[in-house]
Amino acid sequence: MTGLILAPARLPLPGVPAELLRRDPALARAGLLLLALMVPTAIALAVDPRTLNGVAIWVKPLKFEASIGVYLLTLAWFMGELPEAVRRGRVAGALRAVAIGAASFEMVYIAAQAARGLASHYNVGDPFHAAMYGLMGVGAVALTAVSPALAVLLARHRPAHLAPAYLTSIVLGLTLTFVLGAGSGAVLSAGNGHWIGGIRSDAGGLPVLGWSRTGGDLRSAHFLGMHALHALPVVGYAAGRLLAPRAGLAAVLAAALAYSSATIAAFVLALRGVPLIGG
């Protein structure tokens, strides 16, 4: 039986890569490659003493390899819920090409700039870097736009093996990832930095995440928005297993409203110069 996310006891971690490759080989390979590239990037982080904005130069490539890698693997998982004929169709093929192409461009440029000791984001000091930053914006929009397009395919074909609450949660999660994630990302990229108020440095930010603890940081809302496609399906899967259909759908809608409200609240706090978590 295919489609449903299985409980950990029935789908041990070593089986997840194989299942991803079965569901969508191209997206899975691209995502797994990015995660594998974290190893040499981590080595570079350990041996290269250079910094940018107060943190090691290789921190940004490492984070983007993780985030884009997981995003591609998530697309691969949900693509696998579609009927085989749809997965092999031209629309699905186009979405795959856009996702892998945009992800590759973003990561190559970010890594290349890190190797040169230069910023990839907000670097518009000369025509070349201004053009590349603009192309990064186009690539980011294209990459995130794959999510709602996949949501449309799932909503149209409505795989019968998925519980209504779970299917709805996937569709909403993919859609909100674009609305909340790309929406906050557009504001994030339009300024001259992710900080609003506080110290304009990433030094002393939150562990791992790096968000500012002295002022607003638009990356917090962007992070939450981009993970709607993970948070809501978890709720939907549990609701589909534990609740009656109508109650499950209600739980998913309530979770989507709550998640959207939390993301918007983080966005408003950042715009007002208030850190999400102060230090």
Automatic annotation (TrEMBL):
**Which controlled-vocabulary keywords does the entry list?**
Membrane, Transmembrane, Transmembrane helix
Q: Which residues cross the membrane?
A: 26-46, 66-82, 94-112, 132-154, 166-188, 221-240, 247-271
Q: What is this protein called?
A: Uncharacterized protein
Naturally occurring in which organism (per UniProt): Salinarimonas soli
